[in-house]
C-alpha cells in the first residue's frame, strides 16, 4: 500500500474540476509521455467505467491531452489543451467504452505514436485524490505510480539483467527504493521498474542500455515534484524538533513505524500519551516519513502555507469576478450569497462559510486553480471553514496551518481505511470526508482535545452517511456546489457538538468502516456515473439531452 503523506490529502494544488477525473487523468498521460521515445504525434484514448460516462463534464479529455503535452496539474493552460495540441502537431481521439469491464472505475487505455514512429500502449487508473498508476505497458501488467523517480527497462527475461541494472545505479550512487520485474512468460519480454530516492540522469539510462538483453530504457521523473515548495529556514519550518530533523534515514524509518498510525485509536493513544494535538502528531509522522526517504529539510509547513494561499484565492476570486462554469450550470452564486451575509438567517460565521464553499466550487468548475482537500469535488468544505473562522475569530495564518495539518491527519485515516473517491464510495466519501476533516480542524482551532476532534469527525461522517454522487451531466457543478456548502455547515455543527463534550457510541474507526461498507453497497449509478439520483431527474436529462457523457 502506498504510504500517504500530507500532500496526498491536502493536495494536489490543481486545475479543476475533479481530482480523480482531471488531475489523476493528467498524471496518467504525463507518465505515458515520459515513456515515449519522442514527441507524441497521434493518440487514441479509450475510456472505461466512470471515465467513459463523465469525461467531457469533468475535463478528463482536456487533462489527458494536457498530460501528453507535458503540463503539470496546476497549469491554467489545461483548459486550452485541445488548441495547444493542434499547434504542436498532436492528433487525438476519444473512444468511450462504458460497457466494457474494467477493474477500476476510472480507467483509460492510451495508444500513442511518437515522432520516431514507435507505438506505445498503456493502461492507467486514477485511484482517487489526484493519484494514478500505470497498470499495463504494451500488453504486460505492471505497476508504475509516479510517486518516485523511476527507471523503466524493457528487456529480455534473462539472467544477469537485473544485476546489471542495479550495478549501474550503484556506480552512479543512486539509492533504489523498490524493484519489480513484470513478465508474461519466463524468457520472454519483461519490464523492470526500479523506483529510486534520487533523480536519475540520462547518462545512467545510456549505461544500462549497453546490455545486449536490454531493448529500451526510460526515465520517469516523479510527477509529484511540482507539488513541492522550496524550503525556507524559519521557526515554523524547523519544528517539530527531534522527529526526523536530526536522524539518519534508518533512525527515521524506525521511528516512522511507530508513527504510521493504522487507525484513529492508535493516533489518539499517541496524542494522549505525548500530550500533543492531532496536528502535531501528523507533522511528526510527516517529518519522519520524509527523513526516512533521505529528505533532510521538511518544508511541509511551507507547502501548507502555499496551499492556504491557493485556497484563499479560490474562495475570494469569484466574489469580485464571477466566472461561468464549463458546463454552464453555476456561476455568480458566491457573489449573490456575499451580498446577503448580513441579512440572512445563518449568522456571520455560517453565512461566510457558505459563501466561501460555493465560491471555491465556482473556481473549480471553471477550471481554475484549487487545492484538492481531499478531492476537487469536495475542495470547498475545508477552506470555507478555515477562512470563515479566520475572518470572524481572527485566527492567525500559523493557527490555520496547524488546523490544515489536523485535517490532513483525519483525511489520511479515511483514505487509508476507506476511500475518498466518489466513483468508489459516493459523495459521502468526498464531501463526507472533507466535512470530517473540517469538523476536526475546527475542533482543534477552538481548543478541543484530540478525543473531541475525532468525535467531531465521526459526527460529520454520520451526518452525511449514504450521500450519493450524482453530478448532473457529469459536471462537478450541481449538486456538488451546494453539497460543499452543506458539508461545511455539517462540519461546524459537528464540531460544536463535540466541543460540548457529547460523546459517540460508535467511534471514528467504526464510523469510517461503516462509510466504506455503505459506499461499496451503492449501485454504480449512484457513484459518479451521472446515471442516477438528481442526474437522472427529468430536468437534468433535458439539460444534457444529446450529450455523450
Automatic annotation (TrEMBL):
Reaction(s) catalysed (UniProt annotation): L-serine = pyruvate + NH4(+)
Alphabetical keyword list: 4Fe-4S, Gluconeogenesis, Iron, Iron-sulfur, Lyase, Metal-binding
Record has Cell membrane as a keyword: no
Keyword flag Iron: yes
PROSITE patterns referenced in this protein's UniProt entry, alphabetically: ACT (PS51671)
Cofactor(s) the protein needs: [4Fe-4S] cluster
Domain (ACT) ranges: 150-222
Family: Belongs to the iron-sulfur dependent L-serine dehydratase family.
The name this protein goes by in its record: L-serine dehydratase
Organism field: Slackia piriformis YIT 12062
Amino acid at each position: 500500500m502506498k504510504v500517504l503523506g500530507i500532500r496526498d490529502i491536502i493536495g494536489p494544488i490543481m486545475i479543476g474540476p475533479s481530482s480523480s477525473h482531471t488531475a489523476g487523468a493528467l498524471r496518467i498521460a504525463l507518465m505515458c509521455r515520459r515513456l515515449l521515445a519522442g514527441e507524441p504525434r497521434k493518440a487514441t484514448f479509450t475510456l472505461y467505467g466512470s471515465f467513459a460516462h463523465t469525461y467531457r463534464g469533468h475535463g478528463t479529455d482536456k487533462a489527458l491531452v494536457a498530460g501528453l503535452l507535458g503540463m503539470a496539474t496546476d497549469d491554467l493552460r489545461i483548459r486550452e489543451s485541445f488548441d495547444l495540441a493542434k499547434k504542436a502537431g498532436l492528433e487525438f481521439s476519444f473512444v468511450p467504452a462504458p460497457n466494457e469491464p474494467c477493474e477500476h472505475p476510472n480507467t483509460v487505455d492510451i495508444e500513442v505514436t511518437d515522432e520516431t514512429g514507435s507505438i506505445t500502449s498503456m493502461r492507467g487508473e486514477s485511484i482517487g485524490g489526484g493519484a494514478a498508476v500505470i497498470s499495463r505497458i504494451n500488453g504486460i501488467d505492471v505497476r508504475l505510480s509516479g510517486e518516485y523517480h523511476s527507471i523503466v527497462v524493457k528487456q529480455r527475461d534473462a539472467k544477469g539483467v537485473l544485476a546489471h541494472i542495479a550495478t549501474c545505479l550503484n556506480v552512479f550512487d543512486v539509492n533504489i527504493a523498490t524493484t519489480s520485474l513484470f513478465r508474461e512468460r519466463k524468457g520472454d519480454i519483461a519490464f523492470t521498474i526500479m523506483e529510486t530516492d534520487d533523480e536519475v540522469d540520462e547518462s545512467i539510462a545510456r549505461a544500462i542500455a549497453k546490455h545486449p538483453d536490454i531493448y529500451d530504457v526510460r526515465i520517469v521523473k516523479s510527477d509529484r515534484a511540482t507539488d513541492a515548495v522550496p524550503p525556507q529556514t524559519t521557526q515554523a519550518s524547523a519544528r517539530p524538533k527531534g522527529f526526523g530533523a536530526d536522524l539518519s534515514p534508518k533512525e527515521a524509518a524506525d521511528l516512522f513505524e511507530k508513527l504510521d498510525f493504522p487507525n484513529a485509536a492508535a493516533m489518539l493513544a499517541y496524542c494522549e500519551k505525548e500530550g500533543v494535538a492531532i496536528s502535531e502528531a501528523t507533522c511528526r509522522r510527516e517529518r519522519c516519513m520524509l527523513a526516512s526517504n533521505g529528505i533532510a529539510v521538511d518544508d511541509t509547513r511551507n507547502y501548507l502555507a502555499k496551499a492556504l494561499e491557493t485556497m484563499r484565492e479560490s474562495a475570494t476570486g469569484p466574489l469580485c469576478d464571477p466566472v461561468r462554469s464549463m458546463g454552464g450550470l453555476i456561476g455568480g452564486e458566491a457573489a449573490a450569497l456575499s451580498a446577503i451575509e448580513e441579512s440572512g438567517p445563518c449568522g456571520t460565521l455560517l453565512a461566510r462559510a457558505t459563501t466561501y464553499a460555493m465560491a471555491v466550487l465556482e473556481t473549480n468548475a471553471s477550471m481554475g486553480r484549487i487545492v484538492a482537500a481531499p478531492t476537487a469535488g469536495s475542495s470547498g468544505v475545508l477552506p470555507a471553514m478555515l477562512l470563515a473562522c479566520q475572518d470572524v475569530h481572527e485566527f492567525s495564518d500559523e493557527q490555520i496551518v496547524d488546523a490544515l495539518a489536523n485535517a490532513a491527519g483525519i483525511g489520511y485515516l479515511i483514505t487509508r481505511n476507506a476511500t475518498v473517491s466518489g466513483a468508489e464510495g459516493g459523495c459521502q466519501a468526498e464531501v463526507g470526508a472533507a466535512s470530517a476533516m473540517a469538523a476536526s480542524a475546527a475542533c482543534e482551532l477552538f481548543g478541543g482535545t484530540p478525543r473531541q476532534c475525532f468525535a467531531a469527525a465521526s459526527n460529520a461522517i454520520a451526518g452525511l452517511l449514504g450521500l450519493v454522487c450524482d453530478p448532473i451531466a457529469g459536471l462537478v457543478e450541481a449538486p456538488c456546489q451546494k453539497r460543499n456548502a452543506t458539508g461545511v455547515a455539517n462540519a461546524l455543527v459537528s464540531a460544536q457538538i463535540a466541543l460540548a463534550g457529547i460523546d459517540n457510541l460508535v467511534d471514528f474507526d467504526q464510523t469510517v468502516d461503516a462509510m466504506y461498507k455503505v459506499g461499496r453497497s451503492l449501485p454504480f449509478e449512484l457513484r459518479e456515473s451521472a446515471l442516477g439520483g438528481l442526474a437522472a431527474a427529468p430536468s437534468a436529462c433535458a439539460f444534457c439531452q444529446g450529450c455523450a457523457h
